[in-house]
Amino acid sequence: MKRLWTPAWIARHVALVVLVTTFLGLGWWQVSRAAAGNAISWGYAVEWPIFAGFVVFVWWREVRHTLRDQPTATDDAAATTSAPETASAPETAATDETGPVDATAEAGRRPGIRRPVRVARGTVVDEVSDNADLAAYNRYLSWLNANPGAKPGDYPG
Q: Is the pLDDT of residue 146 over 90?
């Protein structure tokens, strides 16, 4: 539970309380306006509590995500005791009908969400191109790349 009392989480808890209180207050204000005869306020009176519910839903989802993904002290101890055993054992990859199975999935632990790797891909332009201007420009860029301190006016071509 200490994970939920970091400065970032305290800010989230405060934001939850402020937003839910504000949204419910605005909903009550719209109910009072609707009771005074403003018919369109009935729609807003329903919307504001829905917004408050959404804030609570997102907060609860983030709390569950934080508690589930971070290892506890017993998980750390188990990982350190099992690490030497797995290092000496030969590596065998388990497979099923769909392909290799992740070892962390087999151990009952859910693998973390990872960001995709972005690979920069450049186009290969043939020097013998139909477009002579493009080839000349590519030679110019190659020269600039080879001479990082040079100015564009120093280009010999």
A: no
Tokens of 70: 């971070």
Name the DSSP class of 60.
Answer: H
The answer to whether 79 and 71 have CB atoms below 8 angstroms apart is: yes
Instruction: Say if residues 41 and 33 touch (Cβ distance below 8 Å).
Output: yes
Parallel, antiparallel, or unpaired: how do β-strands 99-100 and 95-96 relate?
antiparallel
Q: What is the pLDDT of residue 72?
A: 55
Q: Using CA atoms, how far apart are residues 133 and 140, in angstroms rounded to an integer? A: 10
Q: What percent of the chain has pLDDT over 70?
A: 62
Domains of the chain, by residue range, sit at: 2-69, 123-157
The answer to whether the beta carbons of residues 103 and 109 sit under 8 Å apart is no
pLDDT tens-digit profile of 8-42?
999 999 999 999 999 999 999 999 999 999 999 99
Kindly report the pTM of this predicted structure: 0.46
User: What SS3 string covers 68-136?
Assistant: HHCCCHHHHHHHHHHHHHHHHCCCCCCEECCEECCHHHHCCCCCCCCCCCCCCCCCCCCCCCCCHHHHH
Question: Is the Cα torsion angle 85, 90, 93, 94 positive or negative in sign?
Answer: negative
